[in-house]
Amino acid sequence: MTDALLDSQTGTEAIPSAPVVPSRTRSPRSRRVLLTAMGGLVTTLCLVGAPRMARADVLKALPEKADDFEKKFAPAYDYDKDGCYATAAIGEDGKLNPGLDINGEPSEGCRDMPRLTNANTYARSKCNNGWCAAMYANYTEKDEGIGGHKHDWEHIVLWVQDDEVKHVSYSSHGKWKVANRKEVRFDGVHPKLVYHKEGGLTHLYRLANESDDQIENETGRWFYPAVVGWTGYPNDFRDRLLKHDFGTATIQIGDDKFNEALKAAMPSFLPFDPFAK
Fold it and tell me: What CA–CA distance (Å, rounded) separates 227 from 233?
């Protein structure tokens, strides 16, 4: 920080006035006024120079590595301003995200460009009986609201037939909502979804509507995290991620949850078998 002060009206460097040299005959009232002014200046300078509150380290995202199918249809995201940005759950050094404690402010400490530009979406897919399902797991560091908690995992499943997304399922407070293609807005072939705070409750992804083209994330456009597919992790990183305890937030792409999650998310009339190998 420089010693120069800026003029509050013009933004230009102000020329400091000559220091006031107190007179030995200054009155007690004048001395009190001078001391008050000096104290205010010291307080202001201390506030200007004070460091910002420490935040959890931003992890560097894993490089994109996924099947062409998973990348081709990967959802396009925006993030309402009353919530965190998605970010990496595991960094390229293998470190797991420690998350952030809730503090009553839905976006505090978790909504900045370094986090967003280091976001991954973790994918896994399965095809049978003429249909393919692609699940995308997205991580944020906290979920503020009634029943809020450190860490958040939200999931989206795309149901694809004849090289076209026919249905979109998205997690909603422990359940699934299912939409057919006519209800979904697309960025090209990519379904548009928005990370959204539902009233006083916690966050979830919802389908985008027309007004959501007024983008709220800082890139100014629909955002695409780097996709990491089932075989796209380095070394043992996938096992580290899936075995990690994220508290009440759970990731659904692991062997212990994936098939059941597909069963719960799929449209009831599909001939898809969620348990097929």
Answer: 11
**Contact status, residue 62 vs residue 88, Cβ threshold 8 Å:** yes
The letter for the amino acid at 159 is W
Is residue 133 a contact partner of residue 147, using CB atoms and an 8 Å limit?
A: no
Q: CA-CA distance, 183 to 39, in Å (whole number)?
A: 61
Distances (CA, A) of 136 to 169, 210, 239, 244: 10, 23, 17, 18
Contact indicator for 105, 129 with CB cutoff of 8 Å: no
Q: By C-alpha distance, which of 197, 161, 168, 198 is closest to 185?
A: 168
CB 253 within 8 A of CB 137: yes
φ, ψ of residue 31 to 5 degrees: the values are: -65, -40
SS3 223: strand
Q: Which two three-digit tokens encode residue 230?
A: 């089932």
Which tens digits make up the pLDDT trace of 112-147? 999 999 999 999 999 999 999 999 999 999 987 766
> 24 CB contacts (<8 Å, ≥6 apart)?
none
Q: Provide the whole-model pTM.
A: 0.79
What is d(CA 37, CA 208) in angstroms, rounded to the nearest whole number? Answer: 53
Taking CB atoms within 8 Å and a gap of at least 24, the contacts of 194-198 are 194/77, 194/78, 194/79, 194/80, 195/77, 195/78, 195/79, 195/80, 195/83, 195/84, 195/86, 195/138, 195/140, 195/154, 196/80, 196/83, 197/80, 197/82, 197/83, 197/106, 197/144, 197/145, 198/145, 198/173
Query: 54-93, pLDDT tens digit by residue?
Result: 344 799 999 999 999 999 999 999 999 989 999 999 999 9
Quote the CA–CA distance of 110 and 83 in Å, as a whole number. 8
Here the tokens at position 243 are: 């075995």
Q: Which of 66, 123, 113 is nearest to 241 (CA)?
A: 123
